[in-house]
Design a protein that fits this description.
This protein has 99 residues and is mainly alpha-helical. It has four helices and no strands. Helix content is 22%, strand content 0%.
């Protein structure tokens, strides 16, 4: 049935809308968030042919031993505490321009 897009995934619709044929269903994000509700037509291009893998070289950021797991915090919806240093400032030089 496929796997849904993870929460917070960039909009696929925004990235591909200029390239879709006129009769293509419009809201790609909705379709990809609920893949079991939609079937690809015969002859549809493989999704992997439209994706470019990039090996980002992100820095290792030193944190104190009691720092919570950032991925787990994000997935569970916990916001950064007030006064937390800017993650954007720490990573901005390493992220692709369209991130």
């Amino acid at each position: 049935a496929g796997h849904a897009l993870p929460p917070g995934h960039v909009s696929v619709t925004d990235r591909l809308e200029d390239f879709l044929p006129p009769n293509h269903p419009w809201n790609l994000d909705k379709m990809l968030q609920n893949p079991s509700d939609y079937k690809l037509p015969l002859g549809h291009p493989d999704f992997s042919s439209m994706m470019k893998e990039e090996n980002l070289r992100l820095p290792k950021i030193s944190v104190y031993f009691h720092h919570p797991n950032a991925t787990e915090s994000f997935i569970s919806g916990r916001a950064l505490p007030p006064g937390h240093m800017s993650v954007t400032d720490m990573l901005d030089d390493f992220l692709p321009p369209n991130h």
